[in-house]
Amino acid sequence: MTSYYYLASNQNMTDGTGSLEFLEVDAMNVPGFDYPIQREIFNGIEKAWQLRELHQYISNHMARHANCVIQIAHLLNSNLVELKVQEKNLLLFSELTDPRQLLLNESQLLTIKKE
Prior knowledge:
By secondary structure, this protein is mainly β. The chain is built from 1 helix and 6 strands, in the order βββαβββ.
């Protein structure tokens, strides 16, 4: 089993800056997400610099849109286990002030809204 961070949005997502790989995936629907997954981060997020990069990626994505939603989940991907969200949290983009807010527990989904 491999740990992933999956990202979905109501807007088209772009590639990252290159220091953290935001791999484009064929749009897939996972129970618990409101939007199709567009990007994944292989092996999840483990280090402070990765959280900073993810925070910057989200900030850049949100800056391009007046209204936007991003959903991020930390899930284990395995051929033996279905992808499943067990816990959901909501955060307004204006309240996203610290990259550590993006450190998720396994099977946790965070929805970030900008209205």
